[in-house]
Amino acid sequence: MRVSVVIPAFNGKRWIRAAVESALNQIFIGSDGLPELFEVIVRDDGSTDGTLDALEDIQDHRLRIISDPEHLGLVASFQRAFDLATTQFITVMGQDDLIDPDYLSSVMKVF
Questions:
Q1: Is 82 within 8 Å of 90 (Cβ atoms)?
Q2: Which is it for the CA torsion 109, 24, 62, 93, positive or negative?
Q3: Residue 1 pLDDT level (bands cut at 50, 70, 90)
Q4: What is d(CA 102, CA 104) in angstroms, rounded to the nearest whole number?
Q5: pLDDT level of residue 65 (50, 70, 90 thresholds)
C-alpha cells in the first residue's frame, strides 16, 4: 500500500458518504500499469450529527474509520488523522470534497 487518503470529519453527515465513496472509487494504476493499493481513513472529531451513521454500511477493507468522542478542533484532528496513515504518501480531502476517479493515478505519476 502506497497512499493514504485521509478525511478529517466533524459534523459532516450531509457530505461524508459522497466524499468517502469518491475516494474508494479511485482507479489507481501505477506506473507499471498494475492496480495500486490505497487506504481511506476517516478520522471523526467527536461529531454529534450522525456522521458515523452515514458510513456504517460501507463494507470495504480499504476503509478505516476512527472516532474520538471528544472534539479536539481542526489542527489536532488533522494531526491525529496523519498519525493514522500507514503509507509512504498521504493526501487529504475535506469531508465535503469529491475527487475524480483518476486523482491518485494522476498525482502519483511524479513518484
A1: yes
A2: positive
A3: low
A4: 6
A5: very high
The SS3 assignment for 2 reads coil
pTM for this model (two decimals): 0.92
Measured CA to CA, the distance from residue 26 to residue 31 in angstroms comes to 15
Beta-carbon contacts of residue 99 (< 8 Å; ≥ 6 apart)? 5, 22, 23, 26, 93
Beta-carbon contacts of 76 under 8 Å, excluding residues fewer than 6 positions away, are: 45
Q: Give one word for 108, left, alpha or beta, with left for phi > 0 and alpha for psi -120 to 50.
A: alpha
- Cα–Cα nearest to 45, from 7, 94, 10: 10
pLDDT at 54: 97
